[in-house]
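SEQUENCE-TO-STRUCTURE ENTRY
===========================
What this section holds: a protein sequence and its matching fold, both as plain text.
Question of interest: how does this chain fold, as expressed in backbone structure tokens?
***
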Amino acid sequence: MEMTMNENLSKRRSVRAPVLAATLCLGLLAGCGGGGNESGPPEGLEASPGAVSVGVTGDCSEGPGPTVTVWGGQPPYKLTNSLPAGMVLDKSRLTHSGEGFTIRFVNNICMTNMPISIEDDMGRLLHVPVSKGA
């Protein structure tokens, strides 16, 4: 049985539409790129505790402080201490999400809201304020 010209053209169009739609969908999916992180939101950088307050007013003694755990964003994380004369961090870099660093207070220095900055591999920043004896 021979198809007419209109039937043949119609049949070609009906095949092209799904192929074109599938091609467009694959292109969109390929450009998506994901970016997820199993251990935290890729866009949010988080720490626990989110702020540190140690000691009572006037108690500026030396000693160990808490461990701060970091997750989310994109590891590795770079740590910056704003008051190295008053506190020391046991690490300057965290390799993995869920890893932590410990603060140690030194030189009997009191401080109020001195930040430890945490920067992920994408340049996102989080500041954890630290107070001792305030």
